[in-house]
Amino acid sequence: MLTSESGTAAAPLRPGGSLERWVERHLRFLMLGPTVLILLGLTIFPSIYMFYAAVHKISPNPDLPWTFVGAGNFVRLFSDTQFHVALWNTTVFTIAAVTAEFVLGLGLALLLDKYIRKLTFLKTVLMIPMMLPPIAVAITWKLIYEPQFGVLNEIMFRLGLPLQAWAGDVNLAMFSIIVADVWQWTPFIFLLMLAGLASLPVEPYEAAALDGASSWQQFRDLTLPFLKPVIAIALLLRVMDALRLFDLVFILTGGGPADRTKVLSLYIYQVAYRFADPGYAAAMSLFVLFVTIVLSTWFMKRMRLAE
């Protein structure tokens, strides 16, 4: 402690002034400030704007005022046959694509984890499709499906099989889109499953082997229960992404033929920009958001109850 010349104790020195003390007290808020501003600009404000637009009739003429219609845009969803078609196509695509990706991804992860663990380069090769831009993937598959000069029809010709208009056939268009999506996003499931398998404990498997449990029994009674949290995350992320499919459909088929591949994201785009009805498009976007939230909540609750 410092003392003065008279021998009395002097008051301790305080570093900094009032500004420094204020900054120290509010430092956490100051550091969160830029993040909050970015969140407001990129997420919260557009969401509020979309809610506002969904209850209005918006004219293509920017000089005309918006007309409040309340729930009119949402009621319109029940009578819009094109919306029903897009909803059905989205459901079919989501179920088929995510199921195929999960089965293939889990199978590849089990195969590489158990039998060919040392082939690290093969794991890298399998993850390449996931790292490609969706537009590049869509253009690549468009060239593959090209009826006259595409690689796939060339293979069919050499095998003596009939040529197909893959993306232009009403019976094959959705299948073609599902195949392209499975090719791109199976590596995502594979990567998550491989990480989950690498984190599994060894002791339960050793005990099961001593008890004479077969490989299938170990997989059913040990691997699947241990992987349940990883499986839940993988399926949830893929379902959420599949519900907003746009790139592949827009480039490969444009929603055709005969609306067989028209999905919700594409229809929302058409309503907003081709039909110049952004209010109705906002209502459909909110419907997709609501369905995604409901499915996510239900799925997570089911996974917790199954634990």
| Spatial arrangement of strands, main beta sheet | 1-2
CATH topology name of the largest domain, in short, is MetI-like fold
CATH superfamily of the largest domain: MetI-like
CATH architecture of the largest domain: Orthogonal Bundle
Class per helix and strand makeup: mainly alpha
Helices, by number, come to 14
Q: Sketch the topology as an H/E string, one letter per element.
A: HHEEHHHHHHHHHHHH
Radius of gyration, in angstroms, nearest whole number: 28 Å
How many E-type strands? 2
Give the fraction of residues assigned to helices: 55-70%
Q: Which overall shape is indicated by the principal axes computed on the Cα atoms?
A: globular
What does the largest sheet look like? 2 strands, antiparallel
Tell me the domain tally: 2
* The CATH top-level class label of the largest domain: Mainly Alpha
Low-confidence segments, given as residue ranges, are 9-14
Rounded to the nearest angstrom, the distance between the terminal CA atoms is 61 Å
